[in-house]
Amino acid sequence: MKKILFIIPLFLSLALVSCSPTRYNTQLFGYFDTVVSVDGYFESKGEFERACELVKETLKEYDAIFDIYTDGELKHLNDTKKAEVSLELANAIAFGIKAEKATKGYCNIAMGSVLSLWHQAREADVPYLPDRAKLEEAARHTDVSGLSYSAYNADKIEITLTDKETSLDMGAIAKGIVSDVLRERLVDAGFDNMYVNMGGNVVTIGNKDGEGWNVGIQDPANEAGIVEAVKVTDSCLVTSGSYQRYFEYDGKRYHHIISPDTLYPSDKYLSVSVLYENGAWADALSTALFNMDVDEGKAVLEQFDNIGVMWITTDNEYIYYGTLE
């Protein structure tokens, strides 16, 4: 799965007890290979615990859907190349196809065969660089048009990977999709002032104390530092960066965000942050923009209203667009 990145919340206390409602926060572990922070204002500790249970249930459900390494639903589709899948996975794949088109191929859920080669290299006892010929061969099987929706009923959609070497990887959009599901479920359950951070994918409900949730974007050079404070209200802030999930080989760092053009980690930016009301799009765009020139990225962003972006280049230049300007 994609990126374990940290957007730092600008608060420290576990529970600030003053007037009702009370503020609580905690951390959850074991989902999407990242630390999940939950924070908010609640009428009681019991209400807070109920919200946390809803968050955990949702994370567990979607972790099982998107997992490609153990026994997830997506792994089963990749292994069999033809399977009936849940509506949740089918809808995610449909969004992935839409995102690939909107981003001119720079966010591509069919890059799994390429990404798996980099995953194997990164996770090896002694990290190594993937073989160039193998990368190029894998890249021949990354066309999203090879996905076929061949049957439908009330609960399942049958999907076929017509290219038997194609493999899907939802890492570029999975946490964004989950953040949208979380917000919908939490609001439906009556929670109206919360913050959930899934390792760099922040979703907020309500406006904290009337001014929005303060979210700090991490300094790529300092895990404990921030470079920008953003007010986030009923929206999502997603950051993709080169400073998490990487390995070093022959004195050079290789991160996990792989360019469809070069089949190697993109070397344009240290991080790209996207502020948008829709978490799935914010997630997809943060990956796509990381692999694109700024001008090309701005052209893609013209499709979206009320969106904000901040690029930090490898030369430590800060470039802003939209609501983050």
CATH architecture of the largest domain: Roll
Q: What is the alpha-carbon Rg in Å? A: 19 Å
> Can you tell me the CATH class of the largest domain?
Alpha Beta
Unreliable segments of 5+ consecutive residues: 1-18
Label the overall shape.
globular
Counting DSSP E segments of at least 2 residues, the number of strands comes to 17
The total number of structural domains is: 2
Q: Major sheet: size, sense and barrel closure? A: 9 strands, antiparallel
Number of helices: 8
Rounded average pLDDT: 91
Strand fraction = 25-35%
Element-level helix/strand string = EEEEHHEHHHEEHEEEEEEEEHHEE
Q: Provide the CATH superfamily of the largest domain.
A: ApbE-like domains
Report the end-to-end length measured between terminal Cα atoms: 31 Å
Helix percentage range: 25-40%
How is the CATH topology of the largest domain named? Answer: T-fold
Strand order of the largest sheet: 2-3-4-8-9-12-15-16-17
**SS class:** alpha+beta
